[in-house]
Write a structure and sequence with these properties.
By secondary structure, the protein is mainly alpha-helical. It has one domain. Helix content is about 65%, strand content about 0%. The chain is globular, with a radius of gyration of 22 Å. It binds zinc ion (2 copies). The site of one zinc ion has 8 residues, from α2 and α9.
Amino acid sequence: MQYHIDTGLIYEKFKTDCECPLCEIEKIVQEQFLHEFLNDAVMEDNTRITVGKKGFCDKHFDMLFSRQNKLSVALQVGTRAEKLLPLLSPVKSAGAAKKRATEINNAAKTCTICDLIEESMIKYYKTVAQMFTHEKDFYKLLFSCKGFCLNHYAKLLKYSSSAGFGVKEYLSVLSSAEEKNFKRVQNELKAFCDSHDYRNAYKPLGDAENALPHARIKFYGKKFD
Ligand SMILES: [Zn+2]
Ligand SMILES: [Zn+2]
């Protein structure tokens, strides 16, 4: 079986006790790109051209800035600033202003690193589906995992056709893992709320203690700095 990407990291993170193994994978992918943009990539012409065209989103600007190589960040952001300048030329009519507003809003949404991460993650979504059909042990891992954040669950659904002839069974196991674990978090939230009833004051909280951190990941994905 020719996979889109190495399966080692997928096995490792699906075996990890976490609310979304794909968030854990994305964290590693993101770190790799941040590292590249603070080191070798900054010297390459192609990268400079892409950074000029797309720039960085606020999250990735902050992440680059919080790390060591500030000169590299300044060089890249300077390249982007140069490309944005034409959008700031004087506007002469209300119609042109409206058009310019849309152009500025669109320009502010693009991110070189977000796009690279997404390109890479699509290979993981497809490989997870392929592994379900072709790796005999992976079925159990998917079945027993704690589900995914909504974003990554939606992505796995979107690329499920990579499971090929196993797609129906894949979707069945995937959706039952997600539903079961979403309900678990819902129950943890309920237990957490119940624990605030004075009649339950001395009962141990158990898993409910982490109800809100678990809900955070299930709803929005894991937050990385
Ligand atoms: Zn996730
Ligand atoms: Zn970004």
